[in-house]
Amino acid sequence: VLVAGAGIVWLSTSARPTVIVMVPHAEPAVANSGDPDLSPAGERRAAQLGPVLADALAGRTVDHLYAADTRRAQQTAASVANQFKLPMNLLAGSDWAGLASRLKRDHRGETVVVVGYASTLPAVINHLTGGHYTLESGDHGSIFVVVLPSPGQPGVVRLRYGGASPTAAGSVAR
Description:
Layout lengths: L1 H14 L2 E7 L15 H17 L7 E5 L2 H14 L4 E3 L7 H8 L4 E6 L4 H9 L4 E2 L6 E7 L6 E6 L11 E2 L1
Parallel strand pairs: 1-4, 2-3, 2-4
Antiparallel strand pairs: 1-6, 5-8, 6-7
Helix pairs in contact: 2-3, 4-5
């Protein structure tokens, strides 16, 4: 009976798709330091992220939140942490190379939000989907929702939030 129960739990977990939401950090302030805070426009955009995701995910909860270990990424992720009552797991520069494999392995059937950079997110999306996505460095308003069904082919939906970024037009290619 215990084995049958474990099988039902495994089937319910494997049948639920893994949803990975990838978001570039909001607009940084112009600064001479290597780790700037968000600009006022970035703060306004970041404040919208948690509520936008709560609406877009239609009642689905976020199970885990990852953010790059910079102020601008953490400040962008803060509204998601507050909205979903989650701790923020920080990603060092060396963590990005293995992130796609980690997400597939450790978060099957869960919803995960990752806040990073235009320079790191496309590689993770491409590894997860087999696609060829790119993102312009000035595009701070994109949200990529990667769905990994079990079984099935992965899919990606691109959403926008917080108004247009100055260089966002035509910023994504596949």
